[in-house]
Amino acid sequence: MRYDLVIFDNDGVLVDSEPISNTLLAGYLTELGHPTSYEESLRDYMGAAMHRVHDVVLERTGQRLPEDFDDVFHARVFAAFERELEPVDGVVEVLEKLTADGVPFCVASSGSHERIRVGHRKTGLDKWFGDERIFSSQDVGRGKPAPDLFLYAAERMGVPPEKCLVVEDSPLGVQAAVAAGMDVYGFTAMTPAERLDGADELFDDMRELPRLLG
Asked: Is the model's pTM score more than 0.85?
């Protein structure tokens, strides 16, 4: 295989969390007087760290979100995860194949460490991702679309960027991978292919990934 490390995004790639979190985010912003539809939440915030939500609302309205915004939002998300969250269809088979083939992998997510771990415990993916394989935007100064998170993950895993493949489903994530000098495959199960411009490959079924890796 031409890659020494596969770096997975988390939300929408490993766990099927984007519909849950964006429904709740749109609802909470609307509740606070910033009307937001589910589609607008996906467009503006999918794949982003929480600071982007604050930045966009401030830029558009001149108003700051409440200080407890992140805590309230995450409490709602975690409660919904416990009720509804599932792994992305086919991802367990992919992780089994990578493990059997001896291909290193990790996760690099805009979400917090707590969010990643809550989701992995609920879906059973914690079996595959120990602490040494989990990287969050909390670990770096800037989240996606900056390349910092992917570069940090590669450094910690001991692999040069040009030997890494990123699996992403958001425009911000694709931009970050390209900026990091890494190949990136765009997962289009939820995201229109045209929004992942810049990806080296596009696929809509996670079970296709091992074949694409060669």
From this structure: yes
